[in-house]
Design brief:
The complex is a heterodimer of chains A (about 300) and B (about 450). Chain A has about 300 residues and is α+β, with helices and mostly antiparallel strands. Chain A has a single domain, classed as Alpha-Beta Plaits, CATH 3.30.70. Chain A is built from 10 helices and 11 strands. The two termini of chain A are about 35 Å apart. Chain B has a domain at about 20-235 and about 240-275 and about 390-425. Classes of the chains: A alpha+beta (about 300), B mainly alpha (about 450).
Chain lengths: ~300, ~450
């Protein structure tokens, strides 16, 4: 049985609590940059919201998740002016200590079994014998092999390029597990853990909780959190602040602590992507390293 | 070439339709029980879900996909014996065409169930018809298998029409069971051996003989692409489509040999199906077996010589480590031994060729397993080998499906004539103007 208590922030959506949290954040938000060059997370997220006119509905946050998601495309005055985000993730391997708290937070958020690791932490060793950790969420490929092979179109890309699964359509053929070069997909072989009914009665592609037996699942970048101006569960839990979520539109990326200019951050730190040669165009960037920034 | 006379052919073809012996009922009961056990296992899986299999996120395809490729592959014998030999005017084939075509239909029907068995949500299969994603190889599979299945039925049915008319006359004369007279009457579509009907039938069979070959090639090509179109080492290979087609032809001819041997004995057809039939089928098998070995060698040499890490790992698994006993069993038991049995004149007998065919059918299941599983066992990400052991559910369903093939054939040939009477009497329907017996 998965614990019923929701995490402080970025936890399973809870309409009232989220609304309050969001209102507090908006109240405290100062329009002026704080001048330090490093913006606070709250600042980044508010910026990200303000980019889109859809922000009004999102920021209101008082709507239950399902209506919030369905309102995305059609809120009054929002349809034409809505600016789409271009979400990416940045994983700083200089900081990752392989604690796997991200995996646990993700499993708690999505009510997964212990085997289902939507963000999986691999350990690698270089030729020089240096160990490093490689957390692997869904790569959210711009050119996703899993999407092409799905016989019923259950895997789709939403208007922001997020690769999502409609588990009410998936027939469970596992062709996507065969196609994903990153082993990013899990399958619900058995009955998935059930959340308390207050959390979610029925999953959506954005917040697929509970999982559906006999269908495929994978990391969804916690799109429901992003749209509510919150960090994905893994990013929000990483005690080393090694995980960032970013938006290539605003060119900002944020971990729990700081906000950086995405393009410069990637460039200065020699960011790379996994299996570039496959032309999948992943949305996940890695900063190479082997834990040298652990003491920071 | 001497054909026994018409009366003998008719007698031999129609006699087995009634009067089943104790042996028939015993075998039928045994096979039914095994098939029922397989169905029960499937029911158990439907109720409990796919976790009753030995599959995992790493090895997500296993026994069912192996069965799917294997059983559909067995149906290729029908295409070769009936279509290719028919088009090339090989007269010797006529006593075994009906057996070959029925084998094709039955194995295909069984094979086509596995795509459903393997699904996590089989009740949503209809979505592949209502909202197909045409860029998915699995949709191509569905279209190809359905088309091939339909063509196989037509191909079996057309030359059966005159024989059903003969059966109708026979049973009408005897006043024999009403249901048989009715059934044969309905299905023979008023066949009266008129020249016009004969011309039409020859045209139809000729067209189907030509059509069924590309259709068969399509099916195993697209099946191979479900694997080859991924980026997995061991699957991602340009040779896969023809490699799968040759495998299917090889095992398909072997399946025909087994069915022919069984019915020849049970229905006492030795005067029609002679040792030379086994010899000819044996030669076909030998050629296809060596071709398959050549493809295998070419594939692994190309992969292995490049010496990339991934290819070395896959080949190591197959040739040296975990799967090596299975792989070398396939090479020896599935190709070298059967080829030797056919090549050596002393063993080139009905029994020798039949033993060779039995080895081929079993070993080709193994080979398909070795295509499906080892490529998954290796991790695409940093990580170790994954393990897979088929569960009792998978084993039961597999054995049940295997038993269903002879079961359905036994039932089929209780109702339909085992010899292609009309073809044998008329020197064959060939799609080209019929020739007389040589």
């Amino acid at each position: 049985m998965v614990s019923g208590t929701a995490p402080r922030d970025g936890g399973p959506p809870d309409a009232e609590r989220d609304g309050d949290a969001m209102a507090d954040e908006l109240k405290q938000h100062s329009p002026e940059p704080d001048g330090s060059g490093v913006m606070t997370r709250r600042r980044f997220l508010s910026l990200a919201q303000m980019v889109g006119a859809g922000a009004a509905a999102v920021a209101a946050g008082v709507l239950p998740l399902e209506s919030l998601v369905s309102a995305e495309g059609g809120q009054p005055g929002g349809a034409e002016t809505k600016v789409k985000h271009d979400w990416v993730m940045v994983i700083d391997q200089r900081k990752c200590d392989g604690c796997k708290k991200c995996t646990e937070a993700c499993q708690k958020m999505h009510y997964l079994t212990g085997d289902q690791q939507w963000i999986r932490v691999y350990e690698t060793e270089s030729a020089a014998g240096q160990k490093s950790f490689l957390p692997r969420p869904c790569m959210m490929c711009e050119n996703p092999p899993c999407l092409r092979v799905c016989p019923v179109g259950a895997t789709f890309q939403d208007d922001e390029g997020m690769v999502l699964i409609d588990q009410n359509r998936c027939i469970g053929c596992r062709m996507c597990l065969a196609a994903c070069p990153y082993e990013g997909r899990t399958f619900n072989w058995n009955d998935p853990p059930q959340p308390p009914t207050a959390v979610a009665a029925k999953g959506t592609p954005e917040y697929p909780v509970p999982q559906v037996k006999g269908t495929a699942g994978k990391c969804v970048f916690c799109v429901h959190n992003l749209r509510a101006g919150k960090l994905p569960a893994c990013v929000d839990t990483c005690s080393m602040n090694a995980l960032y979520v970013g938006d290539r539109k605003t060119d900002l990326a944020s971990n729990r602590e700081e906000t950086v200019k995405l393009s410069a951050f990637l460039k200065e730190n020699n960011a790379y992507r996994l299996k570039e040669e496959l032309n999948t165009q992943p949305r996940v960037y890695y900063i190479p390293g082997h834990g040298e920034l652990l003491e920071y | 070439m001497t054909h026994p006379n018409s009366a003998a052919i008719r007698e031999a073809a129609l006699r087995p339709l009634d009067g089943a012996g104790a042996g028939f009922w015993a075998l039928l009961t045994g096979l039914s029980l095994i098939t029922a056990w397989g169905l029960a296992a499937w029911g158990y899986q439907l109720v409990h879900g796919l976790h009753v299999t030995g599959l995992s996120d790493r090895i997500f395809w296993g026994t069912y996909e192996t069965n799917l490729v294997t059983f559909i592959g067995l149906s290729y014998g029908g295409a070769v014996v009936s279509a290719i030999l028919r088009l090339t005017g090989a007269e010797w084939r006529s006593p075994i065409t009906r057996l070959a075509e029925a084998t094709a239909l039955v194995t295909l029907l069984i094979g086509a169930v596995f795509p459903v068995i393997h699904l996590g949500r089989p009740e949503r299969l209809w979505e592949m018809f209502t909202r197909p994603n045409l860029s998915s190889p699995l949709v191509w599979d569905l279209i190809a298998v359905m088309t091939y299945l339909f063509a196989t039925m037509v191909f079996l049915y057309l030359p059966l029409i005159p024989d059903l008319a003969a059966a109708r006359e026979e049973y009408a004369a005897r006043g024999g069971p009403r249901w048989r007279v009715r059934l044969y009457d309905r299905l023979s579509l008023g066949w009266s051996d008129a020249p016009q009907q004969k011309r039409l039938l020859e045209w139809g069979v000729g067209v189907m003989s030509v059509l069924i070959i590309p259709l068969a090639v399509t099916v195993h090509s697209v099946l191979s692409w479900a694997f080859a179109l991924t980026v997995r080492e061991g699957w991602h290979s340009t040779i896969y489509a023809p490699y799968f087609v040759i495998a299917a032809l090889y095992s398909g001819v072997a399946a025909v040999v087994l069915v022919v041997a069984a019915f020849r004995r049970a229905y006492r057809l030795q005067s029609f199906i002679e040792t030379r039939h086994f010899r000819y089928l044996g030669f076909l098998m030998l050629t296809l077996g060596l071709t398959y070995l050549y493809f295998t060698f070419s594939e692994y040499l190309t992969e292995g010589y490049a010496n990339t890490r991934a290819s070395v790992e896959v080949l190591g698994l197959l040739l040296q480590y975990r799967f090596a006993p299975l792989f070398w069993s396939f090479v020896v038991g599935g190709v070298l031994l059967p080829v030797a049995l056919v090549a050596v004149p002393r063993t080139r007998t009905a029994a020798g060729v039949t033993s060779a065919a039995a080895l081929v059918v079993a070993a080709m299941w193994l080979k398909r397993f070795l295509i499906v599983v080892p490529a998954e066992a290796l991790s695409l990400m940093p990580g170790g080998l994954a393990a897979y052991r088929p569960s009792w559910v998978e084993v039961s369903i597999t054995i049940g499906a295997a038993a269903a093939i002879p079961l359905l054939l036994m039932l089929f040939f209780r109702i339909f004539p085992v010899l292609a009477v009309w073809e044998m009497e008329h020197g064959g329907v060939q799609g080209v103007p019929a020739r007389g017996d040589d």
